[in-house]
Amino acid sequence: MNAPLDWLQLALFCGVLLLLTKPLGLYLSQVLERGRTWLDPIVGPLERATYRLCGIEADREQDWFGYTISLLAFSLVGLVLTYLLLRGQGRLPLNPQHLPGLPPHLAFNTAVSFATNTNWQSYSGETTLSYFSQMVALTIHNFTSAAAGIAVAAALVRGLARHSVRTIGNFWADLVRVTYYVLAPLSVVLALFLVAQGTIQNFQPYVAVRPLAAGTAGAPKIAQGPMASQVAIKMLGTNGGGFTNANASHPYENPTPLSNLVQMLAIFALPSALTYYLGRVVKNQRHGWAVWAAMFLLFLAGVLVTWHAEAAGNPIHQRLGLVAADGNLEGKEVRFGIFNSALFATITTDASCGAVNAMHDSFTPLGGLVPLFNIETGEVIFGGVGAGLYGMLVFVVLAVFIAGLMVGRTPEYLGKKIEAYDVKLVMLVLMVLAATILGGTAWAARTDWGRAGLNNAGPHGFSEILYAYSSAVGNNGSAFAGLTASPADGDPHYDVTLALAMLVGRFLMIVPLLALAGNFAAKRLVPASAGTFRTEGPTFVVLLIGTVLLVGALTFLPALAVGPIVEHYLMGAGRLF
Amino acid sequence: MSAKAVSLLDRAILRQALADAVVKLDPRRQFRNPVMFITLVGALLTFEQLFTAPGPLGYGLQVALWLLFTVLFANFAEAVAEGRGKAQARALRSSRRQLLAHRRTADGYERIDASLLRKGDVVRVAAGGLIPGDGEVIAGAASVDESAVTGESAPVIREAGGDRSAVTGGTVVLSDVLTIRITADPGDGFLDHMISLVEGASRQKTPNEIALTILLSALTFTFLLVIVALKPFGDYAQAAFPVTALVALLVCLIPTTIGGLLSAIGIAGMDRLLQRNVLAMSGRAVEAAGDIDVLLLDKTGTITLGNRMAAEFLAAPGVPPERLAEAAQLASLADETPEGRSIVVLAKDRFGLRTPAMAAPHQFVPFTAQTRMSGIDVASPGGQPARQIRKGAADNVRAWVESLGGSLPAEVAAAVNLVARQGGTPLVVADGRDILGVVHLKDVVKGGIKERFAQLRAMGIRTVMITGDNPLTAAAIAAEAGVDDFLAEATPEMKLARIRAEQAAGHLVAMTGDGTNDAPALAQADVGVAMNTGTQAAKEAGNMVDLDSNPTKLLEIVEIGKQLLITRGALTTFSIANDVAKYFAIIPAMLVGAFPAVAPLNVMRLGSPPSAILSAVIFNALVIIALIPLALRGVAYRPVGAAVMLRRNLFVYGGGGLLVPFAGIKLIDVVINSLHLV
Questions:
Q1: Catalytically annotated residue among B163, B298, B434, B669
Q2: CB-closest option in A422, A431, A527 to B506
Q3: Which residue, A120, A149, A530, B496, is most buried by CB atoms nearer than 10 A?
């Protein structure tokens, strides 16, 4: 274990992230608040042409209901389109491997998964999807679902910042501008960088190789394809759906330590910058930084625990004298080692990315608990693009409501009173998410179809189920790889229930939050005074962290106890699963 | 009604509350409080388990009983809070038994039962009689003992016309005769409102209480899900969790502490106001008081002592100050106003001038609204021309002097301006055609008021002084008293406009008022405190009545409102933070049977799984009892800024809420095990 170098890498990651936050945040503010950007000369005409072509009145703002309807309609159309493309894959072009169409439940699961920015993959990309499916059916969602997430965050932030108005922005304009000005240009730059690092980008048939060991049945093939372009948006849009099943541990997708670092930064870049956008729009930059600090500290704690757990390794191996060089290397790429795997796992589950460069299933129980808990906080530790911010704002409103009373005033956030209706919406979000995760897990845990999908018995198997539903509801998409969600016998239970969980996790969060945005936008502004609750500074950061941890822990501690916590103690007692 | 007499833990109230706690078990009542309803259902479920599930009976019974106690303790807290109000209501009621009224009829007066009086009836009350209902004096003047309502034993004057015409049912006429027009139907009078409010019968949830109830219900529902899901999780892990343990965990997790104390906190808030002799017409008003950030304060009586005092003699050029003082004293001899007396006193203090024995024939000239001067005419002993001394407003004295052929020296005119600029009232003194100088009458700002305003500012509350003075005077007093802003030459319309403007800018405004012309502003203000001495119109327009009629009370009202909100927030935070320790007590106890390896998770080293679960349940029940005094008294409040207050309360109730239950549960566990209860 090369600790000093690992610490240096951690410092490097955190430093670059911090440096990116302000400039990127400023740029996002210009894009979302329709200011000028240096891309205007190139992208401007394209943007206006799109508005004309689609009949979008970009200057006409919508109220929360109109905004919501637009978003739901857009998502539904995209979902249906992807479903049809996946079903008809066999008859569509760019399919050198002649892969057939997907069965209905898998097509449904996959369409939902990408439309909800989850990118849960019940399939192996290289053996199931054609280049056309990857590039058109799925990648469109990688852009638009990410843009929609940012749009919702922007609508909520506007709702918080405005007062005595009804409108919270125009969904179509937000969608177009985020895609054109942010996601597309950044993806191009990142893809080119990845190609430079060695990521492939082609339309070749898979390459057959001669097996080293004679007598191996069938000739193994090495997958090819337009990977760099897919990987770029997969990270930037916190989508996480890998081109290959091995995702970011595949040497083509993530060839070098540098590409690994840049991919990790790409995951956090936009969620981090959005906190700056928050501060700027509500005219309280210190509030933006307070939210950032809460996210950052939660992230840091997660990294340190996972890193420590993985570096400590498996006590059973140690007792057998099989001390691995530096901790638990099972399921990890030796290229990345313990630290970079632990860091990547924390980042990808903090943000609702779900790309993985190591198998979380093979982490030690505590090392695996952190990614699981990260997802169960509601993906608010930086979180998905947009989703992380609007999720965190749920906790901000909750924290202010509970603790705000303690300054002797009815609670107010950014000069707006938090009233019964707001509490209703916020608690609705938290209840529905918890209910879906716990309900799905409970159902699967006590049914045959649920237990049939498990690779491992005992508490580890339980963690696999819990992780699957947490990942689906949290729109993360990563998996404790042990679970076979789409079994060979075609049992659709997991595919369908997980797809429903993803829909709940996405839209039953977005709709109440847009209603919250509308309600906040209409409120009157209460001027700040010395008696006002401050949403900045260390006290607020501690309060926010406490709220996130407490809500997450109180809701999921019993489930985590039955899963990774029991497993941890059993491992200490010499039992593995 | 003397509210102060009811102590926090009066024995009679406690006895009554114990009985009420059982009555309140009625499921229809419990259903209104989801947190306690779930607890009650859980308790019944554990009783049912005694008969259907295997296991040691003693343990199951104890858990079931303590769960039931949890509900009873919450009921008890509410009953104690209500009990104090009821005790006060009883005292009020006793004053209105078998009241007879003399109602005016077409041909004289008839004796009827007071409960038959209707709005608009006219009654006559003679000395020694009880006033039969709320009304307005239409003829006569009398001294009235209102101690039944205010607790103040000194009688007050009530008379027809003006701002002292309102009378309250149940009060006693001490002298003379009043003719009163009844303004409220029976059951709708001031006392009736008061009784129903203090009894808690007409209490409605306030907006923040509703929001908090939603939060608590949602948390309860979430924990219900967590526990329901835990059953199949246990089945999967082949660690069948017994229903009793699941229910115990559920009740420990749901916010029973705040859920059980929430209504008691609200009732206690109104009660604390009552103890300061302020009657809130709704809980909403108390809650709004905490949010107030602009106070409109009347200058007179609140910021300054009621009267102006002579502070200085500013003699005209060439006039010895003693001469000015002597003339001013002479002119004020018959002046019984506090201002006049203060001139006499100042002359004595400064120059040792004793009140002269007036040998010469003389005649006092009283103040009139037309002359705006007063003074004295002294006939000279030698029959020489009379000496005429006048004091009064500069313009009037000047006109008078000029009519005699004199003039106002420029230096005196400058002194007049100077005094006015400093916020004083200049009183010019003339002896015949000679102007002697100026007496500086000054408003005396109450001691300590400046510090009080500084505290308010630290709390984020702005004070606006309302005065009829001219802007110059107002500005000077405002500066001296340390208020943030002032409204000079204020009329009722300007007050109303000012309140509207503040509210349009998002502020919440509190004010006091007594006159009928204050009524629109009182109604418009978020917290309008009417003085009990005020008119019926004012009392109806406001949402609080100050029985002591003390305008400074506004500051206390705001503090009580804040205290109420802080108590609510602190107990909510405490209640939620408690859950962490309860998890650490119960989860290991539930798992250790199937997975002995998790023993290290039992960080508190509790004796056995049953004792761990029982300890958590007992702690959860007892903490409600332990916090009743805090809920009723309110969290200690200090006027500091929001940041300091948050840090402190978060530390005490958040941090304390995390740690205290670890110690408490451990302690109970030690007791349980040493007594071998399980």
A1: B298
A2: A527
A3: A149
